[in-house]
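WP5 quarterly update. Target: F-box domain-containing protein. Source organism: Ricinus communis. Length: 379 aa.
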Amino acid sequence: MLDHIPKEVLIKIFLRLPVKQLLRCRCICKTWYSLISNHNFISTHSRYTIDSNNNNYLILRHYSRSNKKERFALHFDDDDMFSEYQELDFPLESSWDYFEIVGSCNGIICLTDNHSHILKRIVLWNPSIGLSVTLPLQRISYKVSNVVLGFGFDSRTNDYKVIRIVYYSTNDDSLMVPPEVEIFELSRGTWRINNSASVPAYDVSKYSSQIVLEGAIHWVGYYSPRELTIAVYVVHDEEFKEFRMPDEISGTALQHLSVMLCCQLLSIIQYKKRGSRLCYESCCIWVMNEYGVHDSWTKLFNVVVTGGIGKVLGLRNNVEVLLVGGQGELISYDPWYQRSKSLGISGESCSFYAGIYMESLVLLKGRKGSISRYVTVQG
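Structure tokens (predicted):
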């Protein structure tokens, strides 16, 4: 009976189902299993999910010193108190206290357990289906001084790429420019040196987070500690370019800048510090209202919180700023009324990460690499 349902009808039905129900449907019959596991369907399902824009959850990661646990959980983004919806099982153990999160894209999270990115694992994790891919180890050179990672999606080839920018040191321990760029494509499962692409004349800051926008990865870059730029890597073209920062930011210390998305606009966080305090006194948010146009930079608002700021995580659906306070407490800040409220979660400031959660079937069939299943999908 089930085999008589037209394939086109099945696809329309399956595209509207949550991932957990799709995983159950794979067990009904061989036809359904084959259809849902098909790479073309998985790609179509991802595009449908993105276009439907039903992103009501944020995924939050933090590390608690008292519990000595790295914790991932989904939270209601529209809820004033940021209520927890579901804790995610994450039994992978890092060689450090917690993984560094490189970035996330279309429901896939890229993590590394070596904070210099040189020797240890790089993992792609899909929390909605409980699968991960451990990337093969890269070749090592004793002259490597620093490595910056990036993670993005090539919409033209429906492939995910990890970018590894390798900086080598000279005999006097200065950085050699340009660096070597290595690319890992999920579909191929191997690293390759990017000989054909342009290499940046600037360095990418190891202090900067990354964001993905307009098919490109963005970081804070610099020519010198006081000559700053927005570093841009176009994922499909595998080319680097750059955007000028707002003129008012010139002179800001490199470690006091980072990038973020604000209402789907490229944004810069400019932290301000006073004295010897470990946390920041305040910060301001700049947005590029027209992508790639320098004159469209606008200072959006200032953020001032009693007790200081440890780290800004992003903007919530209710247009409040999600941040970590000076004592490691999670705070939601209303920039229009200049009010803040504690959300009842504390941890190590640097360990906090928040990103849009999107259900995805990517990694379901497994791509080349080491595949692990470690989450039980429950109803």
